[in-house]
């Protein structure tokens, strides 16, 4: 399972890439692997606001639906519409294919996330 | 309590199966992936470990009368070496279990029941024995079972036995068939909507049978197949799953399986009075097929609405791998079950439009 360097991670297997005040959010390679063949992605609308920990999207495999939770609170500024037409892109490359971009409400919330090294250790314990 | 291991547990691990606790058993959800495994069964052949299923034997002078009393289907209509699908109901009409009854002879019946219900069924059968002259035995722990399913199932299994498998017709069985040198009972049955066989032996023998089938099926593209596709396959084929389409509270009539409830059966059976009354008064709710018109996937447990009023829930729902459509079963108020009726499925916090369609999803 790949863990991309330089990103932040949550225990629910979301990843976060920081770009100034904006964060790019996706699901990790571990998450896509465990979901299996992804057949549907539900994304929020631009301008929707979510708090940290709130579910903002859903990723579904044939087997099951999984909610995706906000790693940090914020307002959605972009959604990856390509995923709605081709959800399997998440299986191809979960780090390349982001879900949303959001404007952070409180940058301090980033401090509660894991860096890539911590996430790798976390995954080792999960297995 | 820890989940139990089937005799094939080590084989699943070797094959890279994603093993989970299912109904108290460690079984693989998938090996290579749900969709390729699903397609292997529809187009070629797949092999399932179904050793978790329960087996209960009923023997004795009154075996036929007793089994017929327990079951909603008419057990007197089958002959030796024939199999019948049936429900076993509570006096309330709710379902204790759905099962296959194998008739070895008039004094020896072999019941194959759902893994999650083995203890419940065994107790239920013992509790209702009354004055029937029968011996009841739960032999589940000493029986291993695999299901070889798909259009090429017979071709592959035939390589491992001298017995002419074409002699076993649909829903018939043959005892003492030697498969890969192992003494087996073989029936032409399954849970996928495809042709195929279920093969029973002792625990030691089933490992040999499993490995021999995988080896024999290489040229046909056989895949070991997991619980994930077992559910999508049975769902597409309109086969019900206990705990979803029916349970202790949902009757077989509501689930749309009246064909297997012989209300006019001469002999009495448990649940007969209530089921008859329910049928003559008209069902308040019924299982319907639905197809989603909006984006989204209707999953088990999601609520179904009509004009803002809750009318029922989804019992199984998938994006069908074979049909590439989002379809489901929903148990809803009878007045909304007419084909073409538009309903709304609540998916998380949004409503998605769906319409009632025939439950026969797979046209064959």
Explained architecture:
Chain A has one domain: RNA polymerase II/Efflux pump adaptor protein, barrel-sandwich hybrid domain (OB fold (Dihydrolipoamide Acetyltransferase, E2P)), CATH 2.40.50.100. Helix content of chain A is 20%, strand content 35%. Chain A starts with 7 loop residues before the first strand and ends with a helix. With 127 residues, chain A is an alpha+beta fold. Chain A has helices at residues 29-35, 82-85, 89-92, 116-126, and strands at residues 8-9, 14-19, 22-27, 38-42, 49-50, 55-61, 65-69, 74-79, 100-104. Chain A is globular, with a radius of gyration of 13 Å. Chain B has 364 residues and is an alpha+beta fold. Chain B is 20% helix and 33% strand. Chain B contains eight helices and 20 strands. A six-stranded mixed β-sheet of chain B has the order 11-12-13-10-4-14. Chain B has a six-stranded antiparallel beta barrel with strand order 15-18-17-16-19-20. A five-stranded antiparallel β-sheet of chain B has the order 6-7-8-5-9. In chain B, helix 2 packs across helix 7 (227-236). The mean pLDDT of chain B is 96.
Q: Provide the CATH top-level class of the largest domain in chain B.
A: Alpha Beta
Strand order, largest beta sheet of chain B? 11-12-13-10-4-14
Q: Say what oligomer this is.
A: heterodimer
Task: Briefly note the structural class of the backbone of chain A.
Answer: alpha+beta
Largest sheet entry of chain A: 6 strands, antiparallel
Q: Please give the order of strands in the largest beta sheet of chain A.
A: 1-2-3-9-8-5
The name of the CATH architecture of chain A is: Beta Barrel
Helix content of chain B: 10-25%
Sum up the overall morphology of chain B in one term.
Answer: globular
